[in-house]
């Protein structure tokens, strides 16, 4: 039954891109599968950390700890906290999507394929991700390096608030804050791609030189993060050539929205989303250091879903447009089959097999 409900939400979202009733159905499915799961990867760890909030003063993620305390001191147990958590996070997700497109259902449908099964069980990352996504969406939609200056300051400030909150929830969102600053600096310049590649090279040197670990030390001294030994694991190189798969994934993702731009970028918002997605090249150095940094690509995937949701549907398409869609589907198929496929039992399988309301 859960499989049917899950697939039906995806199919309806792709067919009915703007239907409000369909939006409510998709969100209801996402909420029920996540909030009423009885087990999943890290479920017990999240449960334990919540129950022990009053017994410890050391937290790996200080922002998430304070977020939990709001509900903990309100008398909610972990199951009730889950209901509130997913209600808030899914609302933020829809807000971020609506800033950039009216075709919300199409975006949610592809998001359910990837990366919803991961985000739903990685609660801390999920909250951080949607906060970053709102901040990024505001920058893409409203921030322009032109008049009126007051509007830029206002929207820049609002975006910064969301990005900083995201950083306090999960340290990996520091990348999103850096990416937004770089995007604003280079988006109106010629040869944007070359400049970003150059920055990616510099970023690689930064990661390999040991300065990444120093940044973590500084963040720890400010109280933004705790358990520095845990975080320094991400600053140490692990693995050999597995990063090539993820770099190939990002390359396909970029080409999906950069190739044939004259045909697929009919509106200014499309061009701005495409330009921002180009900053995903900055993930390359981090992937070489640690492939766990592939989590940073999830936001870019949501932006890609938004990008393609805005393309008008046609009965016929040119060979170039067909190639665009092939790259788009490949960028979705790879993480679903490889990442979620390898983690199926603790992610999508857990959501489908262990629900307190809907049975398999």
Structure commentary:
The chain is mainly alpha-helical and 360 residues long. Helix content is 71%, strand content 0%. It contains 20 helices and no strands. Helix 1 (2-15) packs antiparallel against helix 2, helix 4 (62-72) crosses helix 9 and helix 8 packs antiparallel against helix 9 (149-169). The protein is globular and about 55 Å long. The model has no long low-confidence stretch (mean pLDDT 88).
Protein traits:
mainly alpha, 0% strand, 360 residues
What would the principal axes of the Cα set say about the shape?
globular
Measured as a percent range, the helix fraction is over 70%
Poorly predicted regions are none
Order of helices and strands: HHHHHHHHHHHHHHHHHHHH
Mean pLDDT: 88
Topology:
Blueprint: H1 2-15, H2 20-35, H3 43-51, H4 62-72, H5 78-100, H6 104-113, H7 116-119, H8 123-142, H9 149-169, H10 174-186, H11 192-209, H12 211-222, H13 228-231, H14 243-258, H15 261-264, H16 268-277, H17 284-289, H18 297-309, H19 319-342, H20 348-353
Helix pairs in contact: 1-2, 1-6, 2-5, 2-6, 4-9, 5-8, 6-18, 8-9, 14-18, 14-19, 16-18
Task: Give the gist of this structure.
Helix content is 71%, strand content 0%. It has 20 helices and no strands.
């Amino acid at each position: 039954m859960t499989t049917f409900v899950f697939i039906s939400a995806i199919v309806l979202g792709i067919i009915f891109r703007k239907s409000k009733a369909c939006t409510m159905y998709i969100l209801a499915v996402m909420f029920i599968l996540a909030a009423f799961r009885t087990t999943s990867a890290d479920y017990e760890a999240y449960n334990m950390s919540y129950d022990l909030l009053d017994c410890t003063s050391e937290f790996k993620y200080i922002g998430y700890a304070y977020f939990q305390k709001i509900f903990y001191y309100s008398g909610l147990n972990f199951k009730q906290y889950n209901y509130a958590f997913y209600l808030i996070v899914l609302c933020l997700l829809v807000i971020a999507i609506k800033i950039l497109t009216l075709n919300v259902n199409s975006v949610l449908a592809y998001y359910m394929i990837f990366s919803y099964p991961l985000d739903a069980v990685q609660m801390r990352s999920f909250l951080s991700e949607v906060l970053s996504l709102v901040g990024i969406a505001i920058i893409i939609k409203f921030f322009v390096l032109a008049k009126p200056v007051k509007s830029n300051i206002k929207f820049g400030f609002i975006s910064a608030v969301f990005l900083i909150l995201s950083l306090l929830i999960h340290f990996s969102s520091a990348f999103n804050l850096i990416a937004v600053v770089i995007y604003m600096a280079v988006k109106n310049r010629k040869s944007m791609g070359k400049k970003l590649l150059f920055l990616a090279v510099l970023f690689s040197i930064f990661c390999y030189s040991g300065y990444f670990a120093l940044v973590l030390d500084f963040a720890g001294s400010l109280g933004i993060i705790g358990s520095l030994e845990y975080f320094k694991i991400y600053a140490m190189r692990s693995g050999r050539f597995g990063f090539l798969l993820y770099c190939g994934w990002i390359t396909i993702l970029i080409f999906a929205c950069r190739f044939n731009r004259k045909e697929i970028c009919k509106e200014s918002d499309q061009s701005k989303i495409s330009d921002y997605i180009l900053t995903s090249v900055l993930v390359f150095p981090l992937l070489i250091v640690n492939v766990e940094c592939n989590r940073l690509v999830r936001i870019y995937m949501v932006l890609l879903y938004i990008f393609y949701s805005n393309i008008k549907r046609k009965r016929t398409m040119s060979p170039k447009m067909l190639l665009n869609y092939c790259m788009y589907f490949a960028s979705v198929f790879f993480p679903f089959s490889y990442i979620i496929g390898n983690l199926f039992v603790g992610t999508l399988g857990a959501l489908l097999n262990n629900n307190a309301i809907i049975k398999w």
